[in-house]
Amino acid sequence: MTKTAIPYGFWHSDWSAEKAASASRDFAEIRAGHGGVFWIEYDPADARSTLWYWRAGRAVCVTPADVSLRSRVYEYGGGAFCLMDQGVAFVNEKDQQIYLQSIGHKTAAEPVALTQRPYCRYGDLQFDPVRSTILAVEETQADEQVAHRLVCFSVRDGARSVLAEGADFYSSPTIDAESQRMAWIQWQRPDQPWTSTCLWMAERGGDGAWQTPRCLAGAEGGESLQQPRFAADGTLYCLSDRAGWWQPWREQGDRLVPAFTPVDDEKGSGAAALPAFDHAPAPWQLGTVSYLPLAYSGLLLTRMVDGYGLLFERGQEGHERQLATGFSRCRQLAADDQRYYCIAGAADRVPAVLALDRKTGETCILAGGSQPLPADQLSRPQPFSFATGEDETAHAFFYPPCNASCRSLEGERPPLVVFLHGGPTSACYPIFDPRVQYWTQRGFAVTDLNYRGSSGFGRAYRERLREQWGVVDVEDARAVIRALAAGGQIDAARTFIRGSSAGGYTALCALVSDAGFSGGASLYGVSDPLALRAATHKFEADYLDWLIGDPERHADRYRQRAPLHNAEHISVPVIFFQGGQDAVVLPEQTESMVAALRQRNVPVEYCFYPEERHGFRQAANLADALEQECRFYQRVLR
């Protein structure tokens, strides 16, 4: 095919914003049971999350048309359903109550409300089959006070019991097979779940009541524990980063020991310890399953390696087998006697639900996994690390322009769009991102940046952002441009920076710093950290103190790092996107930033979507935002 010479940034493509938005379909949680496997599927076409049941080679949706599964506990939710003996329990997005639904082999009954507490939200659902109860994290909002506790509800009559209260936050309630021991995670303000948490456990007494709980790990602070799980033999496992990485540990008596290091071998010979990698992402959401104890010893676990999320089966003796080798990010694990299940992404396809034969490792795609673009139209991620700061290293993925029918003008280098993930304690992964392909199809290069502070690279890397938000992340955005320009991969004079939420803050800070960007985009991004601190929800109420510092002691630091108070230093065009129902970054914050720039006659565009929350979900809005942003950059390039 003869390619037409067109300037970078203006290539023609059939990969439209609408196609990119429709390719944003994704999967969330996955659970095995009832002779098959269940998962949540999110469809941007109607912005609903529905439950699907796969059995005997066939998948069916069991969610009624007027229902969507989604928890809003801690605003980010998670743990929106669990399996029961006769069906499922789930959280209805509309009212945040728990519903029960019977599931047959071919049909599903209408859901029935288990809870009727309109001032409460629920998430992280777990089923106790021995006592026939649903365990959950309960979020109560009354009189402008928000409280959290662990509760359970009887499936028979809806009777509610409080399991634990008094801590600021709870997650991951889990019960052993005999319903004699319960474990959970809790933490106190001002900590976040990725900075310092505690593992608690309680045992039943002879009368069936829970005895006084005890803290098994984390009491001294400075350790992030997540995802407690009981193995079939009753052993309690948990992920801990006390050794610098989120790795599986197991209980021995009243303490935790490394899951794969013999406790009676002081020299550490015998079974090899796990390599130094994270085995979970930062716990922003409830209900994450990134490892599973196996019935016959060993673990099924994910491992973050150089930004990739790989899947391994590891025996107690240290033998490992990598599974799903054609996929670059595996998450949300489940298992039955014959198969492992996970949600997986790859560079060339949309997310998929996988079933893997436990004996052969053979992989079968149960849902998703289509390849929207042919190989000659696909820009593949190129992982690289680069120097930044004072003798430090940061990480990114580079996507070069790719279009089968267009080529650049002779001697021209492509403009660059720097992608910044949210969080900021989150990460980007080398998987098919329809937005990235939208840009590369039009002749833009893209770099997806895992700046210092991102998760997946160990605790020390994650903690580089402590009191340095708006500093080290901006340094990394500058450094990645230098690295790519030095390699001749981009035109350093034509660069754009964009991000959502916390990524939007970093983008605005980079524009304030006059880092040479041609323009930028903020999608519901933070422009005034102090305003965010005053108005944000309980889960993140103290996060700004960790990211920037105490506002009373470091008031000057907040002002120096607030894009709103430094708008006079922004001289390049900026486009803003905001949801009208955003409870994390309120519309007033974005609108104040827009007004400040317009007052100085800086070219600004503002796109407002009344029905969206923090993170756009509706296909029409996703497409519109993508198209508006592209047109904005193209006007800057002209």
| Biggest sheet details | 8 strands, mixed
Oligomer: single chain
Helix content: 10-25%
Under CATH, the topology of the domain at 392-406 and 415-637 can be stated as: Rossmann fold
Distance between the termini: 28 Å
Level-2 CATH architecture of the domain at 392-406 and 415-637: 3-Layer(aba) Sandwich
Count of extended strands? 38
Question: Structural class, please?
Answer: alpha+beta
Count of DSSP-assigned helices: 10
CATH class of the domain at 392-406 and 415-637: Alpha Beta
Shape: globular
Mean pLDDT: 94
CATH superfamily assignment of the domain at 392-406 and 415-637? Alpha/Beta hydrolase fold, catalytic domain
% residues in beta strands: 35-45%
> How are the strands ordered across the major sheet?
30-31-34-33-35-36-37-38
Poorly predicted ranges (pLDDT <50, ≥5 residues)? 263-270
What is the CA-based Rg, rounded?
A: 24 Å
Description:
The protein has a domain at 392-406 and 415-637: Alpha/Beta hydrolase fold, catalytic domain (Rossmann fold), CATH 3.40.50.1820. Helix content is 15%, strand content 36%. The protein is built from 10 helices and 38 strands. Helix 4 packs across helix 5. The two termini are 28 Å apart.
